[in-house]
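seq/struct pair 1
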Amino acid sequence: MTQKSDGTTVGLDEATAHFVTLDTYKNLQGGLGAAASETATVITFKDLWQAAEHPDNNSSLIASIQADKTQAARFAALLRSMAEFSQPAQAAAATSNIEKRVGADFDLELKSSSRQDGAYFLIIRMHKQTEITPQHLYYCHNNNYNFITLSAVHNGVSQVMISEANPVIDAFNDPTAEFFIK
């Protein structure tokens, strides 16, 4: 015996199509929600501070910071405020290979190795003494912040050996690059 339904009757093929559509929509929404939560990285001031204080241990965090324009600007402001010494952008150079960058707080000099082995020496001469021991030379080049770990400072001078492929050489030769020592 069959009873008459008050509702609309739907064929089996049509009901299956609706079910598949709803299931697909549910899976799509779940996938989009997971993707959004994976890509949305929250960067706090504490993260910025950690990256500035210990860049050697936070290279992936620094990359995440630089991928976001707002966070990169916050990081730049923090680095400027924390810097013991700074050397802002300089006047345009007459040559493409600058050997020395003179600043109020410190001078930078780039010398190639006399062995002609592709090594360079970056010499940092600080003009004044500080109570803290400088640890890193930060540089901003092409809107990215990078750093070099400094060697021990003796009589206000630190010397770091770098390879010819090190990006600090391009920054050194770019008069718009900024340098900070922290």
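seq/struct pair 2
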Amino acid sequence: MPEIRYTEIYKNGFLITREPYEVSDEELAQEAQEARIVKLVAKLSRTSAEDSQLIDLLASKLGYELPKKKIILK
């Protein structure tokens, strides 16, 4: 469901008005994805699962589609 946000307009340091704008579901999902990337990158150490999540998120952000099933080489 889209979210309504507001741009605040100031004049001489005083709030004059708040103009609404709509943020689409796609933009909200993108923001959540970017927040997860920032959180994972900021960690000093990550588990293998977190490394995999980070790789998947970055690949998705760059437009790459990774295979759904991971192949584990032994």
